[in-house]
């Protein structure tokens, strides 16, 4: 999988998750939007050498909202990305 394909898929997943979280936690709208916006920014600047940082931020977000685990890529996806040349 190409990095750009991964970024597009992740963006779609994040936007779907944002809708889910906003409907589930309407009182936490500001925090949800902050997290999603931050992750989208990280995603837009993502390179294979910054993948760790992006995954770490997803992990931290999942501590606050467990639903973020849904967008953490599987290990095989990460392996594919690490093998790709930028």
Shape: elongated
Tell me the series of helices and strands, N- to C-terminal.
Answer: HHHH
Uncertain segments are none
Radius of gyration: 13 Å
Number of helices: 4
Number of strands: 0
Whole-number average pLDDT? Answer: 94
Assembly classification: single chain
Can you characterise this structure?
By secondary structure, the protein is an all-alpha fold. 71% of the residues lie in helices and 0% in strands. The protein contains four helices and no strands. The model has no long low-confidence stretch (mean pLDDT 94).
Task: Give the helices and strands, then pairings.
Blueprint: H1 3-24, H2 29-44, H3 51-64, H4 75-83
Helix pairs in contact: 1-2, 2-3
Quick summary:
By secondary structure, this protein is an all-alpha fold. It is built from four helices and no strands.
Keywords:
86 residues; elongated; single chain; mainly alpha; 71% helix
